[in-house]
Amino acid sequence: MKKWVGVTAAIAMAAGIALPAAPGEALAKEESHHEFSIKGFTDYAELTKKLQQVEKTSKGLVSVDVAGQSNQGRDIYTVRVGSGDKVVLIQSEIHGNEKTGTDAILNLLKTVSGGSPYAQQLREEITFVFMPMMNPDASEGDKRRNTMTWAEVVEDFPQLSGAQPSWNYLDDRVQQNYDYSKNPGFDVNRDFNPDLDYVPQPEDFPGSSSDPGWFITPESQTSRDVYKSLVEEFGKVDVFIDLHHQGVYYVEGTSDEVTLSLSAQFVPDPSSPEGAEYAQYADNYNYDFSRQLNVAAYDALQAKGNSIFNNITLYSQGLDLPGTALGSYALNGSGTVLFEVTGQTQSFGQKKRGQLVKAVETGLLGIVNAVADGSVHDLDPEEYKDIPLTSYRPAE
Ligand SMILES: [Zn+2]
Questions:
Q1: How far is ligand 1, taken at its centre, from the CA of residue 188, in Å?
Q2: How many helices (H) and strands (E) does the chain have?
């Protein structure tokens, strides 16, 4: 059966058409290239099964939809629950070697779709939209980038035939233990553009980290389409949260390993001189609200008492990354929160999985509760700067 799929895929690729996986038929999974097991995390097939189950048993409360397809033809799911007029969009695994967010989303989904009065209250206040695995080819490959060649991009956008491949494309080396010379791909989290209607232009390539992206990957296009359709339906996406992992770092001034880092800052403030190039977005951008959301997550984690949940820091500040989902959506008016959990799969595998998933879930619930009851607006945005900074080395 697998061989048949392979042959069909080859024909489809030669014809330049994306081939969706046949129903019930998994694409071959890549060989693991990492030292540590990741079996404890939810993979694509398990996610598909779990979402189908949740939808079925929820009696209409939860709807699971296919929002688009990855470059290799895997479905990209959205999960929607709740009917409130505040919209909270949470995305995970845009980088496929960063996996705790997917499990944290599944836990949160269970909480908010439950039968308790608390869950009911949350659903009355908030419309939740989850994208638990937005880059499934990367998830299945256990790697940062998607699976796509520059030639495929040019097939989709013939106007780019003379352009240089984008700077976030890798086809010539090993990175994070993955050999992209055998299987090239793009860092999808540099492919976003604050202009959600942007059409790729050859003069905008190869670009750089401080330039907007181009929506050349099917994965970023899918996230963008979900975002735009929510804006159309609700007027705005109030909150956007993106779930990631980082290296192993320390809480500044201590020798404590960071559990997770948070951030509200991805582009310079469009009303400031440094953010002048984003001035057209100044009326939408709401840094105070983003900081309040971060404080809500931080407070919920601190409330867990003296534990690893207290080792929370701010991610690097002063960034200018308009090609990230967070940067683009912040400029479009969403309150934004980045989660960066310690250790990607190449360094950790599934080590500490339970605790790290719990940490993400705790932070997410802190945000959700504060948005649902409106208390987020009473938080002091200036408390954001009291969150400790991240240090690359432990204090002596
Ligand atoms: Zn990441």
A1: 10
A2: 11, 14
